[in-house]
Amino acid sequence: MADLWTGTIWPVAVITFYILLIAVPLMLAMAYLTYAERKIIGAMQLRQGPMTVGPYGLLQPIADGVKLFFKETVIPTGANKIVFVMAPMVTFVLALVGWAVIPFGPGLVLADINVGILYLLAISSLGVYGIIMAGWASNSRYAFLGALRSAAQMISYEIAIGLIIINVLITAGSLNLSQIVLAQAGMWYIIPHFPMFMIFMVAILAETNRHPFDLPEDEATLVTGYNVEYSSMTFALFFLGEYMNMILMSAIAVILFLGGWLPPFNIFPFTLIPGPIWFILKVCLVLFCFIWARATLPRYRYDQLMRLGWKILLPFSLLWVVLTSGFLVYFDMLPR
Amino acid sequence: MTPHLLLFYLFATVAVAAAVMVVSARNPVHSVLFLILTFFNAAALFILIGAEFLALVLVVVYVGAVAVLFMFVVMMLNVNFVRMRQGFMQYLPVGGLIGVILLVELILVAGTWAVADTPRAIEPRPMVAGLTNTEALGNVFYTEYFYIFQAAGLILLVAIIGAITLTLRDRGNIRRQDIGEQVHRDRATAVELKKVKSRAGI
Question: A113 vs B52: CB contact, 8 Å cut-off?
Fold first, then answer.
């Protein structure tokens, strides 16, 4: 019995505690990301943003959450009920499980697995199911069109993301996220791989269905796309999932290109700040770029979006793979 | 019963049950969803035997790409379920025969594997200690099986080109955007000023 306790129950309890330690602050971060988005866009458009609920509108996200919670959940008559309810859950769960392998600091990671980056790629490639299931199960033309657009878009940009990740992998020589960060101790990969960083930023905008690539929820033509039939908590789960995906993708960008938890310079004033704080600061910087793009850029046309993904980003990142590997082999700099 | 064994039976049972549902579900979209569940449990079984690279590649390739295409096709086709079931009894003998043949073959393969006393032609390679899955696979792929690996890549390339050639057809009257032409427009080619005489029009 004691063996069962030390061997199974206790580790599971500890892991559950760690999961809560990651997930609860993450939900809070997501709630305040919506607040930050409204405030930043407000400032960019010379408005104040939310100001009514609490001081400086700070309690606005909580008010929004409570409002969503008290709304009625409507399931359309023609909908396929099980798939309809499952779709937002899939989106939400997939946005959460990616965090299992993200290293917040040296050794501060829930699952330090050898194939961490492949795991993240797998999780992000699954994200399309939540949307396509929602679009199909709603039994509505707008929702279905939005889902199809989204699926095609996510698959197209995932290929570019895969090739960008290959660039980072051959430079770092590991699939483990902690080791990728440690390999950047000398120089962050944003410096040698700057074009790849830019393409990655574009691709994650498309992957999370954010402006200027938010065609799946194009208000003007599709009402709001795949989630048009959803209300109350089912809608809230989609919303949570979308914002959590944004934070996850920003975290991946930070790990791959901005040196994860490492300080910008390994000298006195910078080393005072602990690693996780650096990590959070960098994630906030990338998230600001997400919101900045939303406030600045007009929406793409669908054929232009496909052209950008397949004819520009994909060939260029493929070329960069050849260049990187050629450079590393010629100068004998391949990681051992 | 160790937790490891418990997990194995859990994943194996769900995989088999989902596989049964793939062929018995009435709605083809549900079939694809159950297929995805089967893939997932197969990936979990791979992880249990320590093949984490294979497991994740299975998820990325089959669940993330192949099953999405299945889903696309199944959702877009307007399948008439009543008409699909009409010829069921007519096709049952042929289908049943093929099923029985497959079952017998599987039993034969498993049986010879279990009772054979002769050594297998190719022995499985022992895992080198201290090497991760990915490194071990790469060491074999890019050294010993290099030409076969490249040939597989070439075959895939041919398949890609074939698929594109089959679906690409030239529909004459289509309007395409020429980005270069648009960017190279300037004031001289884009704007034309005309002096319109009053009451005459252009």
Answer: yes
Reported as a single tens digit per residue, the pLDDT across A23-73 is: 899 888 998 999 999 999 999 999 888 888 888 888 888 888 888 888 888
In degrees and rounded to multiples of 5, residue A273 shows phi and psi of -80, 130
> Are B63 and A125 inside 8 Å of each other by CB?
yes
In tens, the pLDDT along B21-77 reads: 988 887 888 888 999 999 999 999 998 888 888 899 899 888 888 888 888 888 877
Q: Which residues of A touch B79 (CB under 8 A)?
A: none
Residues of chain B in contact with residue A122, where contact means CB-CB under 8 angstroms, are 56, 59-60, 63-64
The first and second tokens of residue A60, run together, are 């606005």
Interchain contact, A119 vs B132, CB within 8 Å? no
CA torsion B82-B88-B91-B93 (nearest 10°) is: 170
Which residues are CB-contacts of A110 (< 8 A; sequence separation ≥ 6)?
A: A15, A18, A19, A22, A99, A100, A101
| Site of tokens 């648009």 | B182
Residues of chain A contacting B30 with CB distance shorter than 8 Å: 83
CB contact under 8 A, A114 and B132: yes
* Distance of residue A158 Cα from the nearest chain B Cα, in angstroms: 10
Q: Please name the amino acid found at residue A333.
A: M
Question: What is the fold of B1-80?
Answer: Four Helix Bundle (Hemerythrin (Met), subunit A) (1.20.120)
Q: CA of A309 to nearest chain B CA: how many angstroms apart? A: 15
Which single residue is written with the structure tokens 């994630």?
A: A283
CB A87 within 8 A of CB A144: no
The nearest CA of chain B is from the CA of A92 a distance in Å of 17
Q: Which two tokens stand for residue B179?
A: 């980005």
Residue-range domain boundaries for chain B:
1-80
Q: Which residues of B touch A303 (CB under 8 A)?
A: 177
Residue partners of A293: CB distance under 8 A and separation at least 6: A205, A210, A211, A212
Question: What is the ipTM metric for this complex?
Answer: 0.82
Amino acid type, B87: G
What is the C-alpha to C-alpha distance for residues A175 and A255, in angstroms, rounded to an integer? Answer: 12
Report the C-alpha gap between A201 and B17 in whole angstroms. 41
